[in-house]
Structures are given as structure tokens and as C-alpha cells.
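Chain particulars:
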Amino acid sequence: MGKIWTPSQKLAETGYRLKNYAALLRAAKVDVGVALGNALGVLTIHGELRAKLIRADGTVIDLGLLGKRLVTDEGVAHMVDDWHDGSGDIANFNFHDSGTGVAAENVADGDLGTPAGPTTRATGAKSQPTANQIRSIGTIAYTATLAITEHGLFTTAARATHILWDRTVFGAINVDSGDSIQFTYTCTINAGG
């Protein structure tokens, strides 16, 4: 059976996608870069973030694609260290955090701009949708009214120490106490050749 839409859910989903146009334009640039890399036989790695807003009353609003961006410098260094000598463990990139920072993503990012929400990060559920993808789905429950504008995938549940794999900035998702956001992060690695 297909999804049953209510007019208010459909309006909220469409409204959010219009509000998030800047992040979607950046995502289109990533798509062009990946297509060019594939055409040239160059290895590419990129992240994709999707989300569902779950209201306290149980209403689910599918916000769709929030953005496609890059893997951070420290994420790449951690992956190389893991391969080189096992000093890092890329399997630990499974902790979701959110924030209210609005500065654009940068490969040099080491944290969220302004972490917000619970102080303990949500632990993701991992899967491997295809041979070249890894996915983590984490749900963050909020206890305050916030305008969430960024997401990060980290190596630890605690905010004190961590390594950031990916940071995505998007149009504000307004949450109230009792609301949750289910983030779905997918990393795709396209082989070169």
C-alpha cells in the first residue's frame, strides 16, 4: 500500500524543499562532479543526507534530500590511518549530531558550527544498500524549540572528543520539544578506472 498523504503533510514537505533550495543547488554541483569523475574514471567519495521530521503527535514529514557534500579532511585522514596502521577505525563513524550553525560546509570543518539538541549523539543503525555504499540512520529527539540547520556524522557519542566525517548545512528544520529528526546519511564511493 502506498503512502497516505494528508494535505498538511504534503504542504509541509513541499514548503521545506522550496526553503532548502540553496542546499539542493550545492547538491546538483556534487552530482555534476561525480558524473564528470565517472566519465574520466576518477574515484569519487561523497555523502548524501536525507531526513524525516517526526512530530510529537506522530506525524511524519518526509523532508527528502537535505544536501550532498564532501567528506572532511580529518575524516579522510582517519580513513587513511585506519588502512595504514589500524590507529583509526572508520567503523566508528556512526554518531549523528545536529546544530544551528549556518556557515557553509568546508573540508577543513572539525565540528558543527553550533551543536544543538541532546548532548549525547544519536547512535546510527548501519547498512550497506549496495556494494559501494555505507548508510547510517540516526534519530535525534529534541527537548527544546530549535531551528536545526546542520548535521554531522562523528566517531563518538560524546561531544567532548570526536572526528567529523561529514557536515551538511541545510534550510532550517523547526523542531519543538518532543519532535525528532530521523537523519539518513549515505556515503557513496565510486571506483575509478
